[in-house]
Amino acid sequence: MTDITALARANVRDLTPYQSARRLGGNGDVWLNANEFPLPVPFELSQNTLNRYPECQPKLVIERYARYAGLQPDQVLVSRGADEGIELLMRAFCEPGKDAILFCPPTYGMYSVSAETIGIEYRTVAATDNWQLNLPAIAEQLDGVKLVYMCSPNNPTGNLISADDICQLLEMTRGKALLIADEAYIEFCPQATLASWLAEYPHLVILRTLSKAFALAGLRCGFTLANPPVIDLLMKVIAPYPLSTPVADIAGQALSDDGITLMRQHVAQLNDNRQWLIDALRQCACVEQVFASETNYVLARFSDSPTIFKTLWDQGIILRDQNKQPGLAGCLRISIGTRDECERVIAALQLLSGASREHA
């Protein structure tokens, strides 16, 4: 009998897939582990002609996102989430077995998974103690690197990368590699976007998504922003019909003036909840440290994170364990939910703590 696994590529046989929130499971009713918007947003399908293939790059979606990002349509590519953008860049620019990518953990796990899947070497340069770029160490590792991935605000730490450091990294990689800025959470700190930098840096690429602030994680719609030569190359490797007609329909609505206004209202609401949660976490005796955040999640270090994670899990409050990430021992990441969900987290932690700091 044929051993099917023996036919697979060795790197795939040995690969540990990305442990997405849904893949990890759980039976909760307070889902605070995937950085989703906590409530559904009402959209209705207007396109009912499904017997025809969709446009590869739906014109309305591209035009509206370009206007939203302050760019030209030829600087925008739409794909199945930003995750597809991560992989398209590797497929277009990296030769398996020859080229490498580089990123700075702790950060988003899909950079390594995509590289391993394709068979591309990945190099890591640990972030500094305050989760900034270690530029001298990066410089030593750049030989043979085609793509440098940088998440800002960074997942799971929640911090922005220093603009001065990004400038230095762009100069360091000019003519050698692309710098990919993953801006999945940029709507929570829009002043920090690098979109306007594309005019000066031909090797800068930006990844965006509708999954977070736009409350459309289930839609799987993301964007790659870059100068036309990069977009043209990505168009050579993207699937023929990356967006289904219903996805393009809803994405177009989300990017309308009304849709963007609604998104900004949701961002303001989540930012208020985030500050409430940070203040409340700092009063919990079981919390050792709460880190500043520019996103829709908060990272905190706990005195006994395994017990806290499991106890809340058993109560149906699902958080994201970050203990295995470099430098994040004892850390859990908490997505910002509704105020009621945030209050449930704090109530559970206060019971575990026995008392808040105020009364300890």
Overview of the molecule:
The strands form three sheets. This protein has a seven-stranded mixed sheet with strand order 2-8-7-6-5-3-4, sandwiched between helices. A four-stranded antiparallel sheet has the order 9-10-13-12. Strands 1-11 form a two-stranded parallel ribbon. The chain is an alpha/beta fold and 360 residues long. Helix 6 links the parallel strand 3 and strand 4 (121-124). The protein has helices spanning 4-7, 10-13, 21-24, 59-69, 81-93, 110-118, 135-141, 163-173, 228-237, 245-254, 257-281, 305-314, 339-353, and strands spanning 30-31, 76-79, 100-103, 121-124, 145-151, 178-182, 204-209, 222-225, 287-290, 297-302, 317-318, 320-321, 331-335.
Strand and helix map with partners:
Layout: H1 4-7, H2 10-13, H3 21-24, E1 30-31, H4 59-69, E2 76-79, H5 81-93, E3 100-103, H6 110-118, E4 121-124, H7 135-141, E5 145-151, H8 163-173, E6 178-182, E7 204-209, E8 222-225, H9 228-237, H10 245-254, H11 257-281, E9 287-290, E10 297-302, H12 305-314, E11 317-318, E12 320-321, E13 331-335, H13 339-353
